[in-house]
Amino acid sequence: MTTQLPALPHFTKLIPPGQKPFFLCLEGGDGVGKTTQIKALTNCFQAQGYDVVLTREPGGSPTGMEIRKLFVEGDPHRWDGISETMLIYTSRHENLRRVVRPALSANKIVIADRFALSTYAYQGVGRGVDMGFINAIHHTIVGTTNPDLTVVLDLPTDKALARSNRQGNHENRFEKLGQDFHERLRQGYLNVGNFPQFAPSSQIINADAAPDDVFAAIIHSLESWAEQQRRQSA
User: Does the model's pTM come out above 0.70?
Assistant: First the structure.
């Protein structure tokens, strides 16, 4: 990416560096470009004086990284949807108590490579796990620590899988589940409005564009979010 770092006038007025916390999550299927955009966002925030903490799911904490290896490597059928749900929420609990909540308490910006919406998409829609079961665990583990803003990067399934396969990543357990699974997953993300706990704070961005253009769209989402929050509190 050759992106110049933009100003964030509405965001910095609402969330002054070091004075308020902010929890941002980037979501989407494998190969949509989250890693590239998270790097650009980190540079942008740090250039404006923010202390940024990065995390990922599964992962984030040392225990979570051990769970990640079990979760994303190996045979695609080693776990069913319920087992995956239990694993990911164990990792999420450790991520929240060791990384996310301490960072937010210190008025830092937290950027997560996936969070709870991914469970509803991957395990709920993709794997067919009962949403009531996920809701119950979510309420217990996450409570009210949901992202302030979730940006869903959307890319046609065939393009996303082609990108992911070109990377040659050994964390390819879910890629092995095939295109039908990933199309269900994509539809789960696109229908984020079906999940009331995420819909008001989620925005979908077309990732089938140059990385600089995708980054510009994310910055626009941040500024729009900040301006909306300002109007609501006025």
Answer: yes
